[in-house]
Amino acid sequence: MTIDPATLPDAPLPRLLAIMAALRDPARGCPWDIEQDFASIAPYTIEEAYEVADAIERRDWPALEGELGDLLLQVVYHAQMGAEAGLFDFDSIAAATNAKMIARHPHVFGTANRDKSAADQVADWEAIKAAERAASQEKGVLDGVALGLPALMRAVKLQRRAARVGFDWPDAAQVLDKIAEETRELVEARDSLGPEAREEEFGDLLFVMANLARHLDIDPEVALRRANDKFTRRFGAVESALAATGRTPAQSTLSEMDSLWDAAKRAEKKAGS
Length: 273
Fold this sequence. Notes:
Elements: H1 12-23, H2 31-35, H3 38-57, H4 61-84, H5 90-104, H6 106-109, H7 118-135, H8 151-164, H9 172-192, H10 195-215, H11 220-243, H12 254-272
Helix pairs in contact: 1-4, 3-4, 8-10, 9-10, 11-12
């Protein structure tokens, strides 16, 4: 027997919670949804978060509404599985978040002075988070930096934690010197070492590049995403130019594609000037 949607609550959030409970119902739910667990759903949660960021980057507000709904569904999904396992539920998740936000904003919900700069408030936020980590018995400076973060994002978070206790270069000049050093080591590894050593040296170079981004107040994930977009846009212009002559990139030469790439680059710069 199927579930009649008319029996579900009318209010949007209770209705969504009821829909998820129905999908996971062992007797009448969806076989695919019933089979899922936290680990199998986690990749979808990450994917939906990126799709939210993509809609914001494109300033596509109708799409953002839909992507936020998809991300909310992921929270509801995990909440339902948590409730089934007796771990937590949607209400306990919301209650914990409410308590955290109130505790981390004493200048809004308490007696702390609100007359501070944004930088001062960030420092206060980090101090409160550090106290929370201490209370949760995290001992090391780097404890609690999630393993599942994208590698560049995790690198920046690790570096920020280390910088709080003074383990940091004083300015970007020293980071640039380190980049030159790591580049030389990568070249040496390429010429004389095996694949594992080359990978290690490449990783070291990426890690220092993330550190340079932090010193320059650049989000490396955003910077690389925009570089990807630029590459896609310009290569599309190369393909279009070749298509106008009835050819594909595979039917062209590197020299010709380089020339078309440079033309696309000049056209972009002219349009932006």
